[in-house]
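SAMPLE LOG
Freezer: B-3
Tube label: C17
Construct: single chain, 136 aa
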Amino acid sequence: MVRPIMEDPEFLRQASRPAEEADLPVAEDLLDTLAAHRDGCVGMAANMIGVPVRIIVFDNEGTYMTMFNPEIIKSADPYRAREGCLSLTGVRETKRYRSIKVQYQNEKFQTRFKTFTGWTAEIIQHEIDHCNGILI
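STRUCTURE (predicted):
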C-alpha cells in the first residue's frame, strides 16, 4: 500500500526501533511507496511513511533492495555531497563516504554483510541517517 510521506521534522528526528518479523508488511508498504515516487526518489526509510522502525529500501543499480536493521560498520574515502529528501524541501550539503560496509538483515532476518560504493553507498547512508533520526 502506498503511504503518505511524513514531513514532520520532530517525528523524523526520533531514532527508530529495531525491526522484527512483525514489521514485514511495513517493508512492503515502503517498497510500494518508493515505487510510486520513483521519478523523484531513490531510497526511503520506514519513518518517512510514519513508522519509526529500522527498515530501508533503495535502488541498488536498477533493482530495489530492502534492509532490516542496517548498520554501517566500515566507511572509507569521505567527500561532501549535496542531497535532497522527499520529506524535506531543498538541497543540503552533507558528509558521505564513497565506500561503506553494511551489516543488515534480509527478509528472513538472516544477518548479511555487503560493501557498497558510489551512488548506492550515498543513498544507503542517507536512509540509515533517517533510521538514526538524523536529517540532512
